[in-house]
Amino acid sequence: MFMNSRFTFETSHSTNLLVITADKNDFPVGTAKVIKHADSWKLADIKVMNFKRISFWRKLCSLGQFKNYRNQGIGSDLLRILISEAQKNGISTITGEIVGEHPENLKQWYSRFGFIVDSQYRIELKID
Fold first, then answer.
1. Mind listing the domains of the chain with CATH numbers?
2. Which of 6, 49, 66, 121 could form a disulfide with 54 if both were Cys (CB 3.0 to 4.6 A apart)?
3. Parallel, antiparallel, or unpaired for β 2-3 and 8-13?
4. Residue 87 to residues 17, 19, 99, 108, 124: CA-CA distances in angstroms?
5. pTM of whole model > 0.90?
């Protein structure tokens, strides 16, 4: 388990899947999912919750837990933990594809972590 001042991060390994969950007060606000292969991992998804479209009544009944958790560093922390887990497990490469509303923004974001992004928005990180 990893904690920062606002969130708790929990990793869950199975034979072919790694899931990292970000929680705030035991409420899930983000996840990273990886499909594990022998010496490489494929990033399936990184998601940080954005509850802007939740109805007013559901928000009211949930004591303010449904809010936008984006742009608070959760995705970056999820990716850092994922890279750290790959290093601990002797993984040589993390690959994936950028899928989302703003692929150019995501391209820059992944690049900050050392990922190479090609013209088809495929990503790859070689781990030393």
1. 2-90 (3.40.630.30)
2. 66
3. antiparallel
4. 16, 16, 25, 23, 15
5. no
